[in-house]
Amino acid sequence: MRTLQVKLPGREYDIDIGSNILQEQLPDFVLKKETDLAIVVTNTTLQNLYPDHISNVLKDTGVRVKTCILPDGEQYKNLDTLSRIFDFLMNVSANRKTLLIAFGGGVIGDMAGFAAATFVRGIPYIQIPTTLLAHVDSSVGGKTAVNHPLGKNTIGSFKQPEYVCIELSFLNTLPSRELKAGYIELLKHGIIHDEKLFDYAQNHSLEPLDFDYLEEAIFRSCAIKVRVVEQDETEAGIRATLNFGHTLGHLIETHAGYGKYLHGEAVGTGICFAAFVSWRRNELPENEWERIKSYLSKIITPIKLPPLQKEQFRELILHDKKAHKQAVNFILLNKLGESFIQQETSVEMLWNEFNAFAENCPELVELG
Ligand SMILES: NC(=O)c1ccc[n+]([C@@H]2O[C@H](COP(=O)([O-])OP(=O)(O)OC[C@H]3O[C@@H](n4cnc5c(N)ncnc54)[C@H](O)[C@@H]3O)[C@@H](O)[C@H]2O)c1
Ligand SMILES: [Zn+2]
Questions:
Q1: Does the active-site annotation cover 121?
Q2: Which structural domain range is residue 55 located in?
Q3: Do 140 and 190 lie in a common domain?
Q4: Cβ atoms of 305 and 365 closer than 8 Å
Q5: Which of 243, 288, 322, 353 does the annotation list as catalytic?
Q6: Residue 185 annotated in active site
């Protein structure tokens, strides 16, 4: 097991990473909290795969554990489903000492985190992430949110968990497509901040699962995110580099229709696009652009986009949260492992680059 410490002013917590660690670590943490009620927030898929898993892990602690089971899917990450968590908390007479436990992927983590941030003005919560994406990204850093019909993650808050337990054995049941999509976010951390992590990943294959490799790779990936969040919790500066690949990634998700491509799949192509632009603007050496492209194209599926006109491209890009003054803050690489924020990048330039990218890399993106 590896442990990472997150040190934010007045809020320090541990992230434990390993296989078969939950049974050992979770009861100890819960006993230290001196709470008499813990609420597990999960979904129907996890409940079917791992029935009452967290209650069973905690059965000898003497803490009452109740489980709030939500429907599964990004389409339920909204205010209606959030209300179901609040109803549940009210019905079991939860109070400020009640501990919320998010048990699931990023959707559950984001919703449970936001419920914890707002119920009786804030209750403690912990994350037990079960997807690779949640292991390396969403369970770390304290961003919580639900979607509004007009925009993803638009209603939320920053709320750090009090503990994160990354139990690798949950990945045994994760579909391969989800696994690969999560892996893209892990690689992203290497590409933007740590070339050695990218090298390390390139020398190992993701499947079949090797928990020794994953423990080390996830540890390093989380360490990068933690270091960035410690410097800039609320994304006033450097935290924006974590959005690398997400400008085109979000455009792909929206334009292809939500659900057609997984977030990590869309971001994988977005990462290649941002690396391509970095190379074309003489920031990134050509061999590094080639290295990123050839490795990622082995993992991601080619994206097929419906026809896209310039005006639509502009609208989609400017609709993104990162847009400002009719331009975007676009993240570029100056070398593998080093990124920077290009303020006020023009949409015109991105449109031209996007067309050049589609022409040069038909194996990554196909325009209808
Ligand atoms: N808060 C953040 O910093 C942050 C960062 C990145 C992404 N996110 C959010 O995370 C969400 C995506 O997270 P995700 O990719 O984990 O999606 P998800 O939570 O929808 O999980 C993907 C699917 O896998 C299933 N699943 C979960 N664990 C499983 C397991 N062990 N075995 C089998 N199936 C399992 C889920 O039920 C779901 O059907 C998005 O809503 C995104 O906005 C948040
Ligand atoms: Zn992402």
A1: yes
A2: 2-174
A3: no
A4: yes
A5: 243
A6: yes
pLDDT at 314 over 70: yes
From the list 135, 225, 255, 322, the catalytic residue is 225
User: What mean pLDDT value characterizes the chain?
Assistant: 96
Q: What is the pLDDT of residues 169-209, one digit of tens each?
A: 999 999 999 999 999 999 999 999 999 999 999 999 999 99
Rounded to two decimals, the pTM is: 0.96
291 is annotated as an active-site residue: no
Name the residue at shortest CA distance from atom 2 of ligand 1: 138
Chosen domain end from 174, 200, 215: 174
Residues forming beta bridges with residue 164, ordered by sequence position: 15, 127
Map tokens 């994953």 to a residue. 214
Q: In what order do the strands lie in the sheet with 327-335?
A: 323-324, 327-335, 338-346
Q: How far is the CA of 72 from the centre of ligand 1 (A)?
A: 10
Both structure tokens of 224: 């990068």
pLDDT given at position 230: 98
Q: Please report which confidence band the pLDDT of residue 324 belongs to, taking 50, 70 and 90 as the band edges.
A: low
Q: CATH code at 358?
A: 1.20.1090.10
- Residue 319 is inside which H or E element, if any? helix 310-319
For residue 9, report the distance from its CA to the centre of ligand 2, in Å: 26
Nearest 10 degrees: Cα torsion 143, 257, 312, 270:
60
Confidence of residue 43 (pLDDT cuts 50, 70, 90): very high
| Token representation of residue 283 | 């920031």
